[in-house]
Specification:
alpha/beta; Rossmann fold; disordered C terminus; 43 helices; globular; six-stranded parallel β-sheet; 5 domains; eight-stranded mixed β-sheet
Length: 1050
């Protein structure tokens, strides 16, 4: 360890309290650290790793230490803290999540696991496969249904399969547990009458109840037997879920002792963070790694009182199992010194959690967990927790806003205030009023875009188009609704007039269809309408879209609806432009994903999927992020874990919100299964999980803790407070309880008036700057982005910041397929070991297979034409160069983030050709070579920025020159044109890069990066052919076709 780091590390060790130091210094043998909230568990793991590496007794390297965490964020935080202690050595310590560790094992042993060309399965795909499974059930299957919802079992089956994989249960294991359970039923008190009645005697069996339970177990047995069949369906469709990854590794470790032995011998020290959040399969894998040693050096940190992720498979029982597994040699350490909260807050929270039975202190003799406050600022604070009962929800919400405003007036940092709740919908009104009062907030939550009115309107338009294509004029009920959509700007009065005009006329015995009437300007003028222009534009668009439903890909159809329909214009003028744009992009990404999964994906397929998702409550989610450098924090109790605030408000603390069990739709599990909880205890276990969650919320507070609930809804219906409040008040801890708090009438009227007020936000040309800043927070510049910004900052803004949905063009997809074929050709040559290239047919085969993978981006005619074109040029290209290609190469080289003059850069190079350490960079280009050669020109008076291809080669030179991990020297760059020029010749153009070239491009990089960071996107290129400049120029007033001017180059 470097002397400066060694000094820093020693200073950090001195700061540890005795229990923390004991955890760090007790290197050998199994260690269980029980770390309550605010006790500094993260730093002891890092300090322990540093201590192991610095010890002269251990004689281990960083690669001999395995640290497993629960989330990617925890992995990053752990490594950063470790870097502070031991410097760059931190990057050689093996810190993984359980899933990334398994992925590492698989990638290191592809000879055993095989190369798995699989993709993660989505929720939607799971449902579709499960429906396929159900359809295959034989007639006598216990789960088959002939009436009602024949797919009723879908969610129950998927829940069971997930549980089986998380807990490493096989169908055989479950069958054994079920048989044992059924055998015990006649001996269990609940299945035996305990006193005489008219029909039964004491001691008689409750046969009806036993038969019902036997039926349930038969269903469970049948369901568990389908798990392997479902796994085969997933495999057949090249899909997997993350639980599979752990199962593959566990199975490999069990079947291949040499493989297991390799990792057992490598990892001499194993550490696990948040052990209470592990599930059964994760715990099994840990045991396999640790049990090679008679006394394993395994160190786990957790807190049973903070186990709040049971819905994700976490099992608090694992902590107790660890204790029992290693109790002979186990070192138990309890961290009781809390460096966050006042003693009053700790006493109150301890009072609550003491009601839980599923705690280590109830199972391990002489174990105590009473927390003591050690924060110098707050430990002895005399401020006590407050519990407020409000008259109704309005009083509770208005009071909270009043208190926040008061804290702001008293110069309290808003960042030190947190509002904690169970469900996001509890704070919608509060957030709206704070926005009106210009009090900044911080909020991050998931939104299902399928529930957004804007997306629902868009889906209705698609539904209308699909129905009209199948049967004209069959969806006029939808047209009536569509014409009311605000982005078409049609007067409701006009729609009513049209509706009246479309009725049957008894005098003329005629009836107009809606589309017939709105297509006639003459008839519209006669009706004396206000919105004739808007109606005519909509009618023209509907005809255009309907005519294209089956003539272009669904991606292109969707794009044209967005561009021609004025939806983008509507978004850019909306006060919710950021959220709506993100929702639109997310829906478009979903369409692209399904298009790649399904051949000939069309509008009908899309609408059927949406209906299926709604039936099974499957979301398409986005993160709604509201961020301010100085703002009140709004958090669910789950997302508050690990955070701390001086002022904490826990709101809406009623029994329905905090103790709701929810519907039990899964299969009943027998209590003979080695898992916690058993089904008979499920209700108590749910309550204890909720109590732990409430405890987590309480222990976020440093000094001020306010808990509140309403005694009535705003409609006068009584609300029952959560029993957790009663449990707190029943104790001896100091707590202030305020009964039936009322605000005065004027304060309530003011709050209610705000709720009826539209939030007055300015109309911006750009998305709000805070949102742009969040997008650019980890921005890394590529040469593609550099070229795009230099061409037109407005185009860069819409395409790279806003990311307006644009379907992939046939030119882009054709070029990508050519690139793929070349990459495969050279990779296979390199893998051969003898420098042998595959033949021309195989080369074309790579291109053809990738074209079929991208088929949904083409119309049938485009696809056939491009396939024929590839067959025409690729064999000739192969024959031209097969005897001249360099064989010492690296195909598809990607640089990691490289910093040049303070700017983070990244890049991907098609091919590197080597002569020793000298490198020639090759970039393949499709499109006409004549056009490409012009882009290789350096800066001139006419083009002061130089050509895009020239800048691309110089950019690669800058990247390689600054890549400290390699000793390569780029001597030239080469553009390799895969298509022939007008003379029927293939062209390669090589270029050397001068120091002056580098200086010019570095200056462009620095200047462009700074402008991007400063959000300078308002000024465009001014080219009258630039669609984005025209879009802004006309202030979004005209229906603009947003399809990019397509180039045949890539």
């Amino acid at each position: 360890m470097h002397s400066n780091l060694d000094s820093t590390f020693k200073e950090e060790l001195k700061k540890l309290n005795p229990n923390q130091r004991d955890a760090v210094d007790h290197i050998d043998g199994p260690v269980l650290v029980i770390a309550g909230p605010g006790t500094g568990k993260t730093q002891i793991i890092s300090a322990r790793i540093g201590n192991i590496l610095s010890s002269t007794d251990t004689q281990v390297g960083p690669h001999n230490i395995l640290c497993l965490t629960y989330t990617d964020a925890a992995t990053i935080a752990m490594r950063q803290r470790l870097e502070d202690f031991i410097g760059a050595t931190a990057y050689r310590v093996h810190i993984y999540t359980f899933h990334s560790f398994c992925n590492m094992v698989i990638q290191e042993n592809l000879d055993y696991f095989g190369k798995r060309e699989l993709e993660p399965i989505s929720e939607l795909e799971q449902v579709l496969l499960c429906q396929q499974l159900i359809v295959s059930f034989p007639k006598e299957h216990p789960l088959i249904r002939y009436t009602g919802n024949i797919y009723y079992e879908v969610n129950r089956l998927l829940d069971l399969f997930k549980k089986m994989k998380e807990e490493s249960w096989t169908a055989k294991y479950l069958e054994t547990c079920i048989d044992s359970y059924l055998k015990e039923l006649p001996m269990r008190d609940e299945y035996i009458y305990q006193r005489n009645s008219k029909e039964y005697k004491k001691g008689d069996l409750k046969t009806a109840k036993i038969e019902e339970e036997t039926k349930r177990m038969k269903q469970l047995k049948a369901a568990s037997n389908e798990c392997d069949i479902f796994q085969n369906l997933m495999k057949k469709n090249s899909r997997y879920d993350y639980s599979d990854m752990i199962q593959w590794v566990i199975r490999a470790f069990k079947e291949n002792q040499n493989l297991l032995l390799r990792y057992q011998e490598q990892y001499q020290y194993i550490l696990v963070d948040e052990y209470q959040d592990t599930n059964g399969s994760q715990n099994e894998m840990l045991k396999l790694l640790a049990n090679f040693w008679e006394v394993p050096n395994v160190f786990v940190v957790g807190d049973d009182d903070q186990s709040i992720y049971r819905f994700q498979g976490a099992n608090v029982k694992n902590l107790m199992d660890f204790h029992d597994e290693y109790k002979t040699h186990l070192k138990k350490i309890v961290l009781k010194e809390n460096y966050r909260s006042s003693q009053n807050i700790l006493n109150t929270s301890q009072q609550l959690i003491s009601y839980n039975n599923e705690r280590l202190i109830n199972k391990i003799p002489n174990l105590t967990k009473q927390l003591a406050a050690y924060n110098d600022e707050f430990a002895a604070s005399e401020i006590i927790p407050v519990i407020n009962e409000y008259y109704n929800t309005t009083h509770e919400e208005a009071s909270l806003i009043k208190e926040i405003e008061q804290l702001q007036e008293n110069k309290v940092s808003l960042n030190d205030i947190a509002v904690i709740y169970r469900k996001h919908k509890q704070v919608d009104s509060i957030i709206k009023v704070l926005s009106i009062n210009e009090i900044p907030i911080n909020l991050k939550r998931k939104l299902n875009i399928l529930e957004l009115p804007f997306i629902n309107k868009l889906i209705k338009i698609l539904k209308y188009l699909q129905l009209e294509c199948e049967r004209p004029h069959s969806a006029e009920y939808l047209l009536f609704e569509i014409m009311h959509f605000d982005f078409f700007d049609i007067s409701p009065r006009d729609i009513a007039v049209i509706s009246k005009a479309c009725r049957f006329n008894p005098n003329t015995k005629t009836k107009h269809t809606w589309r017939e009437l709105i297509s006639s300007k003459e008839k519209l003028f006669r009706l004396n309408l206000e919105s004739i222009k808007g109606i005519s534009i909509l009618e023209a668009n509907l005809n255009y879209w309907i005519s294209n439903v089956y003539n272009i890909t669904f991606q292109h159809l969707f794009e044209k609806i967005i561009s021609r329909g004025g939806l983008l214009n509507y978004i850019m003028k909306s006060k919710d432009q950021t959220m709506l744009m993100e929702a639109l992009i997310t829906l478009f990404d979903f369409i692209k994903s399904e298009s790649s999964r399904q051949k000939k994906f069309n509008i009908k397929d899309f609408l059927e999927l949406i209906e299926l998702m709604e039936q099974h409550n499957i979301s398409i989610e986005i993160d709604q992020v509201i961020y301010s450098n100085e703002g009140v924090n709004f958090l669910t109790a789950h997302s508050s874990k690990g955070l701390e605030f001086k002022h904490v408000y826990m709101i809406g603390c009623d029994s329905k919100t905090w103790e709701s069990k929810g519907p039990t739709r899964g299969y009943k599990l027998p209590d003979t299964i080695n898992a916690s909880p058993a089904n008979d205890e499920a209700s108590d276990s749910n309550l204890e999980e909720s109590r732990r969650l409430f405890y987590v919320g309480m222990t976020r507070a440093k000094e001020h803790l306010n808990i509140s609930y309403s005694s009535e809804t705003n409609g006068g219906k009584s609300i029952e407070k959560t029993q957790f409040i009663s449990e707190i008040l029943d104790g001896d801890c100091q707590t202030q309880f305020n009964h039936q708090v009322h605000l005065d009438r004027n304060e309530i009227i003011e709050y209610q008036s705000h709720l009826l007020t539209e939030v007055n936000e300015p109309l911006l040309k750009l998305l709000d700057h805070e949102f742009i800043a969040s997008i650019l927070e980890k921005y890394t510049m590529s040469v593609t982005h550099l070229n795009k910004y230099l061409r037109c900052p407005i185009a860069f803004y819409f395409e790279n910041i806003v990311k307006v949905p644009i379907a992939k063009s046939e030119y882009m997809e054709f070029g990508s397929a050519v690139h793929y074929a070349l990459e495969q050709l050279f990779s296979k040559m390199k893998d051969s070991g003898n420098g042998t290239f595959l033949g021309s047919d195989e080369f074309y085969g790579f291109f053809k297979s990738d074209m079929f993978r991208r088929k949904n981006s083409f119309t049938k005619e485009q696809f056939d034409r491009r396939l024929e074109y590839g067959q025409a040029i690729l064999p000739d290209y192969y024959s031209k160069y097969i005897n001249h290609w360099d064989k010492i190469i690296v195909p598809e080289y990607r640089t990691k983030k490289i910093e040049v003059s303070g700017v983070p850069l990244t890049g991907a190079v098609d091919k590197l050709e080597f002569d020793g350490n000298d490198v020639n960079v090759v970039d393949y280009k499709t499109g006409k070579p004549e056009n490409g050669l012009r882009k290789l020109n350096p800066p001139t008076d006419k083009d002061p920025n130089g050509g895009d291809y020239w800048r691309q080669i110089v950019f690669y030179k800058i990247l390689l020159d600054n890549d400290r991990t390699k000793k390569w020297r780029m001597v030239s760059g080469e553009m390799d044109f895969v298509e022939k020029n007008a003379k029927g010749e293939f062209i390669k153009q090589k270029l050397s890069v001068t120091d002056e070239d580098k200086s010019i491009v570095i200056s462009q990089i620095k200047d462009t990066y700074q402008k991007i960071m400063d959000h300078q996107f308002e000024n465009g290129c001014g080219d009258d052919k630039c669609q984005w400049c025209n879009f802004v120029k006309y202030n979004y007033d005209a229906p603009v076709d947003l399809e990019l001017v397509e180039s045949d180059e890539i």
